[in-house]
Structures are given as C-alpha cells and as structure tokens.
Amino acid sequence: QFPFGRRLPCDIYWHGVSFHDNNIFSGQVNKFPGMTETVRKITLSRAMRTMRDLFPLEYNFYPRSWILPEELSLFVAEVRMMKDSNPSWKPTFIVKPDGGCQGDGIYLIKDPSDIRLTGSIQSRAAVVQEYICKPLLVDKLKFDIRLYVLLKSLEPLEIYIAKDGLSRFCTEPYQEPTLKNLHQVFMHLTNYSLNIHSGNFIHSDSANTGSKRTFSSILCRLSSRGADVKKLWSDIISLVIKTIIALTPELKVYYQSDIPAGKPGPTCFQILGFDILLMKDLKPILLEVNANPSMRIEHEQELSPGVFENVPSPVDEKVKVAVIRDTLRLMDPQKKKRKDSHVTVPPQEQWLGVRGHPGLWEVSRWQGLDGLSSEVAPKPTRAALFCRCQCSEQGAAASEEPPDAAPGPEAALPSLCLKQVFPKYARHFSYLRLVDRVAALFIRFLGVKGTTKLGPTGFRTFIRNCKLSNSNFSMAAVDILYIDITRRWNSMGIDHKESGMCLQAFVEAFFCLAQRKYKAQPLHKQVLSLLELCECRLAALHGKRLVWGCG
Ligand code: ADP
User: PANTHER family, per this entry (predicted)?
Assistant: First the structure.
C-alpha cells in the first residue's frame, strides 16, 4: 500500500476503486479506464438495447428496459401496446436509480402510471425494467448469483470466468408480486447489504446452507434433482461473453482516450462481478455488472449494541481468495517468460490436463463448461483422461496454461479457478462484434488523441473517405444528420465535458445510413454490408496513400 503516493514503477498496480493514476507508464493496472461509467445501469441498458436491435434472439437474456426520464412516454406506450395484444399479461416493473448500488432507491410498480414513478423521475435518472416474476427458488427463497469474470485484455479480447461464485439469498419466502407484497424488500431483492438487516439472515460456515452460499452448492443440488447443469453453464458462458461484447466498443473509446496508442502506458485487466438471476426454467438473466465487486472476506457481527467485530466468512473466502490469487497468476509478468520455454500442449489436452480430483459434481461442471466446444474438440478417450489426471496430481497448475516444465512457483498451488472462455469460444460469438467494428471506425476519425467525441469535421471526413455521400445524400444532409443526432444525445445529459458526437450517437447515425442504403434487410445485415463497404473503401484509400507516399 502506498498511502502517501508511489515513486517506483511496479509490475502490477492494484487500485481500490477505479483507474485514476495518470502517472503509470508501464506494467499492468487492475482497472480499465471508463469501466465504472460503462457498466452504470443506464449505459449498460443502452448497450444491451443496441445489441438487441441487431440480434434480438441472442440478446434476450437482459430484461426489457426503458431509460427515465427520456423514455417515459415510450415506456407507457409500449406497455399499453403489449397489454392490448395480450390482456392476460400482468407485468411488474422494477425501478432502479442510475448509479445506485446495494438496492439503494429500488422499488417495484405494477403500472407505468404509478405516482412514485411519475413523481421521482425528474429528480433522478433511472432504468425501469421488466421484473422477472418467476425466479428459480431454493428452499422457497429467491436468490441471485454473483459470478466473477476477469477481463484480461480488451485487444485481443480475453475473458475468464471463475468456476465458482456466490449465491445470495432473500430472507423471506418468495411470492409472486402483488400490490400487497411489492414493498417487501426481503422477499424481492437479493442484495446482501439489505438482507443482512433482516432478523432471518443466517451466517453459515457451510457452503451449502445459510443466506450466502457457493454457486457450486446450488448446482450440486440442481444436478441431484436431474437439472441439466451442463446446459446452464453453457448459457451462463454465452451470457457473459455476449455482455462483454456489448461493452467493449465503449471501453475501447475510453481506452484510446486515456492510454493513446503509440505512447508509453500500462495495459489493463479487471475483475467484474456479474449478477445473474435464474428463471424457473433455469434460463439465466443478467441483472447487472459491477465494476468494483466487493472482495471482502469477513462480515461485521454486532457483539453488543453498537459494538461490532469483523468475523471471517468462509464462503466469501473460498470464492474470492481463489479469484484474486488466480488473477495475479494469470497476470504474472514472469509467466510469459516461463511459458515461452514450454512445449506447447494441444488445447483440449490443456483443458483436461489439470482436473485435480473431479468428484461427481466436478465432472458434470467441466462437461458443462466444455459444452460450447463439444463440436470443435474431439472427446479424449478414458485412458487419455486418466493419464492427464495423473499428471495433474503431480503438480500441473493451470488449466489454460501449459504445465510447468520444471516445478515452478505454481507447482504448490491449486489448479486455476479461472476458465478461459474467450478467445476459446470466439468462433461462436465473433459474428456479434459488429458495434466493435463501428467503434473502430469512430476511433479512426476521432483525430485528436485523448478525445471521446467526434467533431463535425471528423464526421464529414468519415463520410467522404468512405464515399457515402451522393446526389441523394448531399454533404448538407450529412451535416443535418450529424447535428440532429448529436444534439439529441447531448440533451440526454450524459457527458457535457466535451462537445461533439459520442460513440452511441455515431452508432445511431451509422445504423441510419445502413438502413437508408440497404433497404428491406434485417438490421444486422444492413450494418454488416455498410461496414464491409466502409472498411473496403478505407483499405483502398490507405493503399493509394501508401503508393503515393512511395512515389
Ligand atoms: P443494485 O446495484 O442496487 O444491487 P440490481 O440491479 O442488482 O441493483 O438490483 C437489486 C436486486 O433487485 C437484485 O439483486 C435482484 O434481486 C433484484 N432485481 C433487479 N432486477 C430485477 C429484475 N429485472 N427482475 C427481478 N428481480 C430483479
């Protein structure tokens, strides 16, 4: 810890809250610039909406959401329309203030005309979301899952998921929402910070009882009831990868602004907390992403009125220590050097090579994680599996890394709890990365390093270089498009520090151009066609410039 500042450069910097040190020119930092802003409720909802517009089926794991106050009338109109088309639909909505956490300011409503909604939205921006009324219950209680995800690198994209997480329980038996029980937070909200104040909260030293348990204990229970936990894991992996794909465009804009390419700077990684709810049919639903998940491994206990003591929490310790330890192992700057001297092991062997002692649950869990790649990787024979398990017991450490040739410092450590899911499953998801490519165009035309918004000249240059204007779409029309969209986005009060067109506004303009040019196709095809056209024309222009440069 450097409470009074730091002088010497470090290999790894571990910041408590966010990326804030402008004085780092090398090494690795545990926060990405702009992550906190990118996962705020409103920004996340917007990013998910963009992806859902492109890929409605792939992004149906995020509840339908509206942003308040700007979309209040849209919310009212859409709910009315859905009710008209399905009179038996009796929805409930959850209102969450933007930037809130720990359940702060959250409430449920049955009707968009609820006075609490219309009365409060002008004072605080919020997201109103369809409430998932039929969650999976365990012991009659609602619970959610906190999963830890390591974003190891943005470019190239590398994602790891912790093999175990936490399940946080409500403290009152669940009932579907009615006007009578809407306000009962201990029944509807799973936040630890709220439920800890309920008289029913149970601190348990065991991983499979009490108000906070390991996720693996829940899976074990589901598995014993015959549930398909393999499919559940594969759905969770998809949810995580798709969510990060939705977040990367915005993160890349922040990244180039804080750590411009070509200048000395650190690389970044970050542990994210994914909050996931399971529906009765085991479909995972994303609730939110936390940029700064709590890594506390103790809880406060009131010994006598007003006197508190920190008590170890074995469940937190089991999950969180492994996540931090293995994040450091993966980011270890010495690792690359050691790795370079290893013999490469084929990917499926790496994966199976270090199982430790898989029990019944372990086996099904691994199969679940491997489910996505089952068509890709041939299944090993039992003999091969046995042989590799033997190897693991002799001290191989990391499932994603080649075993150490000579017993290194990792030999004494347990196998990695972090499982690589990207680029491992990249080929299943790469087609979703369209907005990433739109963001690459945006960044290319930003011009001045350190900015996050595109000026009118940059937008004109983009249109000109990609040859998108013609007799039907004059440069005057281009300027009007720029002004219209930019003004609307800037009036939403997101970021007034800089003037110009933000990434989301550029994405909207790009979609608009794509729809105009390629009529009567699904949106994702229109966007893909325009992207290919732009990329092709820019490559040709770049080629010409190189030739001119040589000449
Ligand atoms: P916060 O950041 O304040 O914790 P969350 O989005 O995590 O906000 O919501 C708090 C809690 O409310 C969640 O842990 C979950 O129990 C419940 N919740 C949130 N959104 C929904 C939803 N769409 N359907 C059902 N329950 C939800």
Answer: TUBULIN POLYGLUTAMYLASE, TUBULIN POLYGLUTAMYLASE TTLL11
**90-99, 101-110, 278-287, range with greatest mean pLDDT:** 278-287
Of 374, 371, 288, the closest CA to residue 61 belongs to 288
**What span, in angstroms and rounded, lies between the C-alpha atoms of 278 and 231?**
13
Helical (H) or strand (E) element with 330 = helix 314-331
Give the number of the atom of ligand 1 that is nearest the alpha carbon of residue 131: 24
- Summary mean pLDDT of the chain: 84
Nearest-CA residue for ligand 1 atom 21 is 131
H or E segment and range at residue 484:
helix 475-491
- Write the CATH number of the domain with boundaries 433-548: 1.10.238
Does the C-beta of 102 come closer than 6 Å to ligand 1?
Answer: yes
Q: Is the CB of 63 under 6 A from ligand 1?
A: yes
DSSP state for residue 112 in the 8-state scheme: T
Question: Could you tell me which of 397, 403, 218, 236 has the C-alpha nearest to residue 325?
Answer: 397
Q: How far does the centroid of ligand 1 lie from the alpha carbon of residue 373, in Å?
A: 31
- In whole angstroms, give the CA distance from residue 22 to residue 3: 16
Angle in degrees, CA 479, 483, 488, rounded to 5: 155
Task: Enter the tokens of residue 191.
Answer: 């936040």
- By alpha-carbon position, which residue is closest to atom 23 of ligand 1? 131
Domain boundaries, the chain: 135-334, 433-548
* pTM, to two decimals: 0.86
User: Looking at the predicted structure, is the pLDDT value of residue 369 above 60?
Assistant: no
Query: DSSP of 276-317, one letter per residue?
Result: EEEBTT--EEEEEEESS-----EEEEEEETTEEEEEE-HHHH
Q: What is the pLDDT of residues 46-62, one digit of tens each?
A: 999 999 999 999 999 99
Pairing of strands 137-138, 65-68: unpaired
If one compares 363 and 492, the residue with the highest pLDDT of the two is 492
Q: What pLDDT is recorded for position 367?
A: 39
d(CA 45, CA 51): 10
Please give, one letter per residue, the 3-state secondary structure of 164-213.
CCEEEECCCCCCCCCCCCCCCHHHHCCCHHHHCCCCCCCCCCCCCCCCEE
- CATH architecture, range 135-334: 2-Layer Sandwich (3.30)
Task: Indicate which residue's Cα is closest to atom 18 of ligand 1.
Answer: 189
Cis peptide before 177 (omega within 30 of 0): no
| Residue bearing tokens 């910041």 | 15
529, pLDDT greater than 60: yes
| Residue with token string 């499982």 | 419
Q: Which atom of ligand 1 is nearest to the CA of 41?
A: 6
